[in-house]
Amino acid sequence: MATIQGVLGPIDTADLGFTLMHEHVIIRSAGLSEQFPSTYPRAEVIARATDCLAEARAHGVKTVVDLTPADLGRDVEAVAEVARRSGMQVVVATGIYWQPPRYFQSRPPEAAAALFARDIAEGIAGTGIRAGIIKVATDETGLDRGVLTILRAAAMAHRATGAPISTHTNARMRTGVLQQEVFASEGVDLSRVVIGHSGDTTDLGYLRGLMARGSMIGMDRFGIDRFLPTADRVRVIADLCREGYAGSMVLGHDANCWWDWSPVEAVRRAMPDWHLLFIPTRVVPELRQAGVSDGDITRMTTENPRVFLERQGAY
Q1: What span, in angstroms and rounded, lies between the C-alpha atoms of 88 and 18?
Q2: How far apart are CA 19 and CA 251, in angstroms?
Q3: How many CA atoms lie within 13 A of 287 on its CB side?
Q4: Cα(307)–Cα(315) distance, integer angstroms
């Protein structure tokens, strides 16, 4: 069986188990804690994140794919410590979010691609902890110059290293289509791409189109009802399963164990279901009630992540 690079070393893909494909362990405002250290109580954050992942593991989750790129305050040494303490398998990402830092605005895609490839092949920021996946994003700005540069860079790093790609999109704006067009133009095999946040829409035509080109779609924002209520997310998955698409979907929450973007209490009040336990404890039973078979649930939570992550190798 193939291996995927985890934060604590290689993971046999046969051992991935129940996998949440789009999460974040720690999110920070990049650069803030270097100037204002009190904004990142690191020991407290590690303890909180350890409890978070340990609880998810106790509810059957075996692997978390942490899609936190550098410009979201990535701290892979902290994530590694959380993985050691919690027993959770964690795959960390290289890449850049949808508002690329100014550094990349005046440089060609090759500059970013070299950085991504180094994270994958050698390790992140001198830690020796290697990224196992590439994360990029396209949102309300569409394909502006910076975003286009990063998408092309991701494609180049993917072709050079074989690491898979997973994305953030704005489903309302159908930006998954734009991503696929860029990746295809750069020679990427679209079956090695997850088009993320596809579960934010009920537009089945859009979703069928993404899957028809070979990509998996991420139904990965469970608990964020302001984008789409849980009942609608479940119904869309159930409808697509009935149409035979269970082999093209993966699940997640896009949740985190800690972030500095807003107070924890405010987030809990606004989105009480947005946490790593929601899929195993609530969504899976609701999928069953909607007619999704146990076989299809296993396919989306276990088999599809394995198949997707084990397809590696440079072009």
Answers
A1: 11
A2: 8
A3: 28
A4: 18
Model pTM?
Answer: 0.97
CA-to-CA distance for 275 and 268, rounded, in angstroms? Answer: 9
Structural tokens at position 152: 């092309």
Q: How far is CA 166 from CA 61, 70, 233, 250, in A?
A: 20, 15, 20, 11
What is the C-alpha separation between 90 and 20, in angstroms, rounded?
10
Q: What is the pLDDT of residues 13-40, one digit of tens each?
A: 999 999 999 999 999 999 999 999 999 9
In this prediction, residues 77-98 reach a mean pLDDT of 98
Say whether 2 sits in a helix, a strand or coil. Answer: coil
Cβ neighbours for 230, distance < 8 A, ≥ 6 positions apart? 222, 223, 273, 282, 283, 286
Give percent of the chain with pLDDT exceeding 90.
Answer: 96
pLDDT at 306: 98
Q: How far apart are CA 52 and CA 275, in angstroms?
A: 9
Segment 47-56 mean pLDDT: 98
